[in-house]
Design a protein that fits this description.
Distance between the termini: 11 Å
Structural class: alpha+beta
Order of helices and strands: EHEHHHHHHHEEH
Helix content: 40-55%
CATH topology of the largest domain: Glutaredoxin
Number of strands: 4
CATH class of the largest domain: Alpha Beta
Number of helices: 9
Strand order of the largest sheet: 2-1-3-4
CATH architecture of the largest domain: 3-Layer(aba) Sandwich
Largest sheet: 4 strands, mixed
CATH superfamily of the largest domain: Glutaredoxin
């Protein structure tokens, strides 16, 4: 079973969706036969590498709401994250450009660390509130993932994997993806967003039945 996942490291529902997929694979007992492939997607390609602006302020501007209304939005997302064991802290989050993070992940995938780097980048942003738009922070995360820091720094300073990241984004466009997370199972079934657990479980079981 091949599961392709389009996501971004500053997308709160992407981390929630990752957990829901993992839990569904464990609950259905299909994890051992599943190949999960992470695909790049940028929610905001124009976002700066780092910013002093709070996420509440950014959300208020994006959706044309007051900051109080934006705080209510983040509270709902925080509650959803908590349901899958994730403790979000929006008050300390800052905008970040994720293009370099996606390039780093492509390199990590070649080293057999795709799942680890994806998990660590998401945790760094949402749980630890680190500035993952900064190359120095990304090098730290690579080292923590068990990858060579010097090579990670070389990758980040270069233009390596830019074409791979852009190819994923273009593929998403061709598939009609308008938001992430977006899951494609065996190129037959798609799940958009962090859906309820049963949606993931039903899709996985259906594909497993077809394969057998």
């Amino acid at each position: 079973m091949k599961i392709e996942v389009w996501s971004d490291y500053v997308c709160p529902f992407c981390y929630i969706g990752k957990r829901k997929l993992e839990q569904a694979l464990e609950k259905t007992g299909l994890g051992t036969g599943a190949e999960v492939i992470f695909k790049s997607y940028e929610l905001d390609p124009n976002s700066p590498e780092t910013s002093d602006q709070s996420m509440v302020s950014v959300l208020a501007g994006k959706y044309g709401t007051t900051e109080a209304q934006a705080e209510d939005m983040t509270a709902n997302v925080t509650a959803a994250a908590k349901e899958v064991g994730l403790e979000y802290n929006f008050s300390k989050m800052r905008p970040a450009n994720t293009f370099s993070a996606h390039r780093l992940a492509k390199w990590a995938e070649e080293q057999g660390k795709a799942d680890e780097i994806s998990e660590n980048l998401l945790r760094a942003y949402f749980i630890e509130n680190r500035e993952i738009g900064l190359k120095e922070v990304l090098a730290d995360i690579a080292e923590e993932t068990g990858l060579g820091r010097a090579e990670a720094e070389a990758v980040l300073k270069s233009e390596r994997y830019e074409k791979d990241v852009r190819a994923d984004i273009e593929e998403a466009r061709q598939l009609g993806v308008q938001g992430v997370p977006f899951f494609v199972i065996n190129r037959k079934y798609a799940i958009s967003g962090a859906q309820p657990d049963e949606v993931f479980e039903q899709a996985l079981r259906k594909v497993a039945e077809e394969e057998s």
